Amino acid sequence: MVGLDASGALRLGAVLGAFLWPAVSTPGCSEAPRSLRLVIDTDLEVPEQIDQVRVTVTASRTDEGNVCEPVTRVFELVDPSELPLRVTFEAGTEYSAWVAFRVVGRLRLHGEEVFRREARLAWPSSGRREVALSIDSRCYRVHCPATEHCVNGVCVGVPHPGIFDDLQYRDRGVSCDRVAPIEDVVVLPDDAGGPDDG
Fold first, then answer.
1. 2-169 CATH fold
2. What was the pLDDT predicted at 12?
């Protein structure tokens, strides 16, 4: 598993093919689709300090190109046993240059955002790559400017400012899930996914 660096950027080696909660794959397939699995954990108290996680994903055709319309899935947290969350994004055929995600932790009782982190990643050349993200207590309720996020208790610049919110970066009307509509799935055991890349 690979962790994110201090900037939130990580260089790994379409419209999105799939955006699944958690990873679901077909046993016995000779070639698994290229995918990233995001493993989200926290040292915060569940549900007293955090009771919801929102993951938003977008992707681009080219290194500097526009992105498809971001898509979001929401996870309600009731018990610590529900962590870590394992979220898999499969590469499609179109928006396959890179993928970006935003993870937001919330405390619904107070209607409050308590954590925010973004990253821009390259798709793996084959198979699946795992990326770990910790919702760190050092960043709990640290509210940074719009172009920054909290890493290790300090506000630093996000990898791609505006990519999730500024319409100038979007291919209007092209949803990231148009190839394979997003589906909510039952949480599976750790060993239920397909093989890692390699």
1. Immunoglobulin-like (2.60.40)
2. 26
